[in-house]
Design goal:
By secondary structure, this protein is mainly β. The chain has one helix at 2-16, and strands at 37-48, 51-54, 59-62, 65-68, 74-81, 83-90, 97-103, 107-108, 111-113, 119-130, 133-136, 141-147, 164-170, 176-183, 185-193, 212-216, 220-221, 224-226. The chain is built from one helix and 18 strands. The longest helix is centred in the first third of the chain and has 15 residues, at 2-16.
């Protein structure tokens, strides 16, 4: 019986290796990656009156990889290369955590966000400039940008805006708009997205620009006046 099975096996191999094309697809060869990667994981917490607590929805970045913490404040970033450099954990309303991190293997690293940062509201009315006066505009898409305006400090010389937020809203029947969560300082702007009008101007006789810069020192009112193209 053993000799018969051997003969059958040889016959099958001979048929497959005859002059015809190979049977079945051939898997492409892939060169192995020369650079290993690792997983960096941990928990992000924030200061509270009674100690510290995990924070959900924090954006964590390490060596070009990024992710978001879950409901337990946990994050896990696979694919991090061997590196030495800046790592950050940021969430609107908190002072960002920025650290220098060495990655040479799978690493556990916990971040602690700074204390809560005061944020403010920006609101106003969007109107069209007409020959008979200002007419409030309904349904205008208003966009807003705000940045945590902090001074750069070593070793983070080039990053003076660790947290930035972009928001949009639409004016109501009275032309009113409102944004919340803006940071104090000069790094704020507001604009509209409507091809029928030029850029917003608080002064209808002033020059047009790319939106309207706003300095926020508290809850702020800013009415926008649009000129039809």
């Amino acid at each position: 019986m053993t000799r018969l099975l051997t003969a059958v096996s040889v016959a099958m191999l001979t048929g497959a290796c005859g002059g015809g094309p190979p049977i079945g697809p051939t898997a492409p060869t892939q060169a192995p990656s020369s650079e290993p990667t690792f997983t960096v994981s941990g928990v992000v917490v924030a200061q509270t009156p009674t100690g510290s607590a995990p924070v959900e929805g924090v954006q964590v970045r390490v060596a070009g990889q990024h992710g978001t913490t879950d409901g337990n404040g946990y994050y896990s970033l696979p694919g991090v290369p061997k590196s030495y450099g800046a790592a950050s954990a940021v969430k609107a309303g908190y002072a960002a955590a920025r650290e220098i991190l060495t990655v040479s293997g799978d690493t556990r690293f916990d971040f602690q966000l700074g204390p809560r940062v005061a944020t403010y509201t920006l609101s106003g009315v969007v109107s069209e400039v007409t020959a008979t006066g200002l007419v409030p505009l309904e349904g205008v898409l208003v966009h807003q940008y705000t940045c945590e305006d902090v001074s750069s400090s070593p070793p983070f010389f080039s990053d003076s805006c660790p947290v930035s937020i972009f928001q949009t809203t639409t004016t109501d029947k009275t032309g009113f708009y409102r944004f919340s969560g803006l940071y104090a300082g000069k790094k704020n702007s507001v604009g509209v997205s409507d091809e029928a009008f030029g850029d917003p101007r608080t002064d209808p006789n002033g020059p047009e620009g790319n939106g309207q810069d706003v300095t926020i020192n508290g809850d702020t009112r800013l009415d926008l006046q649009l000129v039809r193209r």
